[in-house]
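Title: Prediction job returns without error message
Component: structure pipeline
Severity: low
Priority: P3
Assignee: unassigned

Description:
Job completed but the reporter wants confirmation the result is attached to the right record. Sequence as submitted:
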Amino acid sequence: MESSERSNRQLRRALCYANIERQQATSPSVIVIGAGMAGIAAARALHDASFRVVLLESRDRIGGRVHTDYSFGFPVDLGASWLHGVCKENPLAPLISRLGLPLYRTSGDNSVLYDHDLESYALFDMDGNQVPQELVREIGVAFEKILEETDKVRQEHSEDMPILDAFKIVFERRPDLRLEGLAHKVLQWYLCRMEGWFAADADNISLKSWDQEELLPGGHGLMVRGYIPVINTLAKGLDIHLNHRVTKIVRRYNGVKVTVEDGRSFVADAAIVAVPIGVLKSSRIKFEPRLPEWKEEAIADIGVGIENKIALHFDKVFWPNVEFLGVVADTSYGCSYFLNLHKATSHSVLVYMPAGQLAKDIEKMSDEAAANFAFMQLKKILPEASDPIQYLVSRWGTDENSLGSYTYDAVGKPHDLYERLRVPVDNLFFAGEATSVNYPGSVHGAFSTGTLAAEECRMRVLERYGELDLFQPAMGEETSFSIPLQISRM
């Protein structure tokens, strides 16, 4: 009798396990690699579509190049910090609005400085003398004219060239646009800010493609409380595995197998690769079989730049009540840019933001030396500046989890490389700011590619299962739009 009951229990247990395995075998599954904005957006969409989703992240935190640090006792974004395009067309606007996250508007739609308006500056020369605002406005107009003239150069030349070379051609043709003395230094500062937008030096930026990205209307809004609340909201309830660095992705006709650094493996019907372009370039993830040649070429040819942040926290405010401070110099390399967080957040913090070669050179320093370097730039214009009480230093270029800040169009490379990187390979899908043709280098671009990859993946997997319903609305179609609250500059 006892033996019979034991046999029945074993049979019931075996049937139970068999049912679970059968259910798992027929339940759509996806592995998402990378818990930045794109990866989390993709995982969120698939999870909400009742897929089994595993999210693998190499860091000990989520967010990727979105990194809100609380070391100062309040949020400071060391990575992305702006919503570029505060409007209903921005796919992140509804979520930011629903969370009640305020934005501080730093520019309108047509600022020559991209993310700042001319009215919000204070520029100084190396001797600490403030540059007259009227001169800065005049050079701003001249800079726009120079950019207009470079478009003529672009139309006349079939071969691409660095935008800096186009500037030289413009100056040869239009001696009236050449500037000397202080005016030349201010022009170099404008060029420095342009290089900051692309995270690359002007001699590396493509003349053909530099303005091909789409700028959403509504200006630019600084995330006052940081970007991490958006990340945390999207990540809620997801199956996330931190400290899981992916080393190998094997794709077969019936699924994928993903191996992490410690040798463990995960299997699923499909995978979404949402790691930074710098990581893909490093070949630290092995693909088996190899990716198609056109995909490998896209990875190799997309430009990846560096822009870092050195946040200096002071015990009191001693600087002008403007949104940013600038140091003008003979070259763009020698210019400096400080974002004034006190204006937006009431915290006494200045953020030094080097880009391109300067950012690479500073990354060779220790954190203390980098903070001292930034502070010395500040002392040039404000000799009475008090020492910072705390500092934070980002290193996106040498961080093995990013190996760069964001993408830009390199000289001689077509803009459609972003689309080539996005196109799926069998049951392998790709997402991230580097796969966004219209919005590369932006958080909303990364978010959009994540949701797009999730939808393409969903349809592909359900088609394989024979469960695709063409009358089912695509993920996110029923979202209502609203615009986030903006804090007045006044």
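Comment from assignee: result matches the submitted record. The chain has two domains: 28-64+227-301+412-487, 110-214+307-393.
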